[in-house]
Amino acid sequence: MADGMQLPININDAGRCGGGFCTSLADKSPQVMLVPPKRVLPIVFIPGIMGSNLRMSTDRQESLKKKNNLAWRVDCALETARFASMSTANRQQQLDPDKTCVDTYDSGLAQTGNPKETAQERNSGVVLNSIYHWHVSQNPCILLLPDPVGTGQSKGHQQKALERGWGEVLFGSYGELLQLLEKHLNDPFYSNQEPSNWRKESVLGEIAP
């Protein structure tokens, strides 16, 4: 892979669109755009029944007199602890399937039911592990590569992950697995087209010598 400043790509255009930027004449560093392969194998990740974060409707929040619209988010220890002292009636109202939905990030615009809390703060527990190369490195993960500073509306790796729904699941249980799949399923081969050791062992079932 060519060395240089990695340019952001637009996953909505299948990664075929990128944006460069101007530098001084003295800066001879190349700008590199990593284009994902045309063939895509979709991976659908379905969490367990207790693994989806939920938020409640505005009227249900008001009737329960809650300061936020969280209905179920195990990563939030204080909210989870409330269930221990909650009455059966309140528990049923808070988890009412007709008054709850998946707590999506919605590009940071999702209402949290608390005017003092932003969607970004709501999802502060989604912290990505640097060992999976979310930053520019020798072998970065393309789709979650942070945008270079100065490109306009720059997004970091964590924000991109949230926009793809990573904040919708119990991150304490599923976060490591999501990152592992993102890294290895998008990077299954070495530069010589030899399958990576992870692919050999975990996908092809080969035993390392």
The N- to C-terminal Cα distance equals 28 Å
Q: Assembly type of the shown chains?
A: single chain
Based on secondary structure, the structural category is: mainly alpha
Strand content: 5-15%
User: How would a textbook summarize the main sheet?
Assistant: 3 strands, antiparallel
SSE arrangement, N to C: EEEHEHHEHHHH
Supply Rg. Answer: 21 Å
Strand order of the largest sheet: 4-3-5
Mean pLDDT across residues: 82
The tally of beta strands, per DSSP, is 5
Low-confidence stretches: none
Number of helices: 7
State the share of residues found in helices, binned by percent: 25-40%
What general outline do the C-alpha atoms trace? Answer: globular
Fold and architecture overview:
Helices cover 27% and strands 6% of the residues. The chain is mainly alpha-helical. The chain has a domain at 54-102. It has a 3-stranded antiparallel β-sheet with strand order 4-3-5. A two-stranded parallel ribbon has the order 1-2. It is globular and about 65 Å long. The protein starts with a strand and ends in a 6-residue tail after the last helix. The relative contact order is 0.15. The model has no long low-confidence stretch (mean pLDDT 82).
